[in-house]
Amino acid sequence: MSTLFWIIVAVLAVGTVVGGLLRMRAWLQKPAPPEVIEAAHRCDEEDD
Questions:
Q1: Which top-rank group of organisms is this from (predicted)?
Q2: Residue 48 pLDDT exceeds 60
Q3: Any idea where the domains of the chain sit in the sequence?
Q4: Residue 32: what are its φ and ψ, rounded to 5°?
Q5: Fewest 10 Å CB contacts: which of 1, 7, 23, 29?
Q6: Rounded distance, CA 18 to CA 12, Å?
Q7: pLDDT per residue over 2-46, tens digit each?
Q8: How far is the C-alpha of 32 from the C-alpha of 40, rounded, in Å?
Q9: pLDDT of 7
């Protein structure tokens, strides 16, 4: 019974980590909002 419990805990932990990584990957693939791109261009112009 104790072994089964730890297997279930390990499966849940791995599922949580994988789910978080997939969510983070999806978030990173979204394009940046236009305001962020504009601010970056303004910053580049100020540096020149």
A1: Bacteria
A2: no
A3: 2-47
A4: -75, 145
A5: 1
A6: 10
A7: 999 999 999 999 999 999 999 999 999 999 898 988 888 887 666
A8: 11
A9: 98
pTM, rounded to two decimals: 0.60
The structure tokens 């932990």 sit at 13
Q: Give CA–CA dist 2/41, Å, rounded.
A: 58
Residue with tokens 């540096």: 47
Could you tell me the two tokens for 16? 């949580």
Structure tokens at 47: 């540096």
CA dihedral 8, 9, 10, 15 (to 10 degrees): 90
Round to the nearest angstrom and report the end-to-end CA distance of the chain: 67
